[in-house]
Design a protein that fits this description.
Layout lengths: L1 E6 L2 H15 L9 E6 L5 H15 L5 E4 L16 H24 L4 E5 L13 H7 L2 H14 L5 E6 L11 H4 L1 H11 L3 H16 L11 H14 L3 E3 L3 H14 L11 H13 L2
Parallel strand pairs: 1-2, 3-4, 4-5, 5-6
């Protein structure tokens, strides 16, 4: 048993796996779950199939759950009219084609649960300056419904679920600090979270679902557990959301009323931001 981490850079995937194993420590019991790193280009069907084989070998059998998390915005924010076609292809290849091929391989190899990672655009909202990314994510909810309809017709008990991490501060969002000005920086500072905080919320809920339960099983409130379980039954699948509308309003409200998280990730004042950017460029 264990978890397989993957990415285009196999070296980084292995480093991440080694870091997880190190955190588990030498005191981990014999036979305890381990992490493994494997390289994969998700937009290539042969590479995804090779990942599946490597995972089965490492885990001692097919993976029971897949998380389709690969995605990119090309690390650039620009109007589509000015976007390099190669970057457009990279975004669609990873986010759309990669998700389709990964979900296909997972279900063909017998995975019981497949999780698709939503992003900006998944609800159909405009994504100015990253149109290709939003376009690629807009089909995720439709894909979840389509795949579950296909699985039902096949009388399979496998399910496809949605994960919604909200706005996460990563190297992918950093270029937006300049592209969207002080208003964008205000919003990111108020709403965004570090990857670790989002993972701490999503991971136990994902594990609960993969173990045959529901995401709400980890909630402290009995009412939340009951309501969450009913919602999952009505949908026929799980949608695990970190940045709920209520949490979003709370974050923005606290920022406006209390100044909470001001300049948390990036200086909001335009003049100060420009000065800091120039100083950083001069020091290189």
């Amino acid at each position: 048993s264990g978890v397989v981490l993957t990415g285009r850079d196999e070296g980084r995937a292995r480093e991440a796996a080694a870091a997880l194993n190190s955190r588990a420590g030498a005191g981990a019991r014999a036979g305890a779950a381990r992490a493994y790193g494997v390289g994969c280009e998700v937009s290539d069907a042969d590479s995804v199939a090779a990942l599946d084989e490597a995972a089965a070998e490492a885990l001692g059998g097919p993976a029971s759950a897949w998380v389709c998390n690969a995605g990119t915005n090309g690390y650039v924010y620009r109007e589509l009219l000015e976007m390099d076609p190669a970057v457009v292809g990279e975004v669609i290849g990873a986010n759309a084609v990669g998700t389709l091929l990964s979900a296909r391989q997972a279900l063909r190899s017998g995975a019981r649960h497949v999780f698709l990672m939503e992003g900006a655009g998944s609800a159909g909202e405009p994504t100015r300056k990253y149109a290709a990314y939003g376009y690629s994510k807009a089909g995720y909810r439709q894909l979840v419904g389509s795949l579950n309809a296909e699985l039902k017709a096949l009388e399979s008990d496998a399910r496809v679920h949605a994960l919604s991490p909200g706005l996460v501060r990563t190297a992918m969002t950093s270029p937006g600090d300049d592209a969207f000005g002080s208003t964008g920086r205000f919003f990111v500072n108020a709403v965004a979270e570090e990857p670790a905080a989002v993972a701490q919320f999503l991971a136990p809920r994902l594990v609960a679902v993969a173990a045959g339960g529901c995401a709400a099983d980890v909630e402290e409130s009995q009412l939340a557990r009951v309501l969450g379980g009913l919602q999952a039954q009505v949908r026929g699948h799980e949608r695990i959301e970190f940045l709920t509308p209520g949490r979003l309003l709370q974050k923005v409200g606290r920022r406006l009323a209390l100044g909470e998280n001001k300049d948390r990730f990036s200086v909001e004042d335009e003049e100060a931001f420009r000065a800091a950017k120039e100083a950083a460029e001069e020091s290189r």
